[in-house]
Amino acid sequence: MTIARITFREALRKKLLIIALILALIYLALFGTGLYFAGRDIGQARQAGSQYMEYMIYAQLSTMGLYLASFIMAFLAIFSAIGTISTEIENGMLQAIVPRPIRRTEIFLGKFIGHGLVVTLFGLFIFSAIVFLIRTMLGFTLSNTLQALLLFILQPILLLAVTMLGTTFVPTLGNGAAVFLLYSLAVIGGFTEQIGAIINSPAAVNVGIVVSLIMPSDAIYRKMIDLVLPSSTNIFPQALGPFGSMSTPSVWMVVYAVGYFLLVLTSAIYVFSRRDI
After folding, report:
1. CB of 77 closer than 8 Å to CB of 161
2. pLDDT at 247
3. CB 271, CB 169: distance < 8 Å
4. Higher pLDDT, 69 or 171
5. What's residue 154's pLDDT?
6. What pLDDT is attached to residue 83?
7. Are 218 and 186 in contact (CB under 8 A)?
8. Mean pLDDT throughout 116-129?
9. What is residue 240's DSSP assignment?
10. Domain count within the chain
């Protein structure tokens, strides 16, 4: 826990966190402005008797807001930890810590907990802000927000674990590029799966499922969307496009993602404990 506290304080002082916070505030301001004007003009659609149009506007704005917020969280999780181990090996800091009476497992878990706490608090802030803006500007209440919040935070925590695994044996720059490419692959696979479900293409859906098994981050997002949208807005999920959840992951995919996280974390501890530094 001492290492976790030190890591947490170091993360708070990094310029990356300041940049992520500034980007998040700018994004929330723009998103809130868009919701304000959409909520002001939505009365015209309601007066025209188009309840379907009203539902679709609510759902599309909600999915767009949560998707872009997930991207900011992924950015923070990946780039805050890409050099956690590798950089300290290169500059000699770890050589001064490892000989002390502390196990490498404790060193690694302390760093992971420190970064994970930063990611969790940041995720709690941006998710709560989006839910508040949607409710205030549109008068629209998302469902199952507590369960959705857990999934919203699970996605960057999973990416953090993968990044921490990479930093145990890959140089900093290469680790960042590799994890970001994995995340991009998951995004493309998720889009392919949703489009395949919309056009009724089993092959495209299967491609997306296979990609989700390689990196389940996007599948977590799709399950979260399925939770937050009430059944009234989910009557025509195909209208949400690739940001929706036409092909909804099962609960077993969430279980798989948790198992994936534990396997990656265990592998990272094993690799770091065996590495000659």
Report:
1. no
2. 79
3. yes
4. 69
5. 94
6. 79
7. yes
8. 93
9. G
10. 1
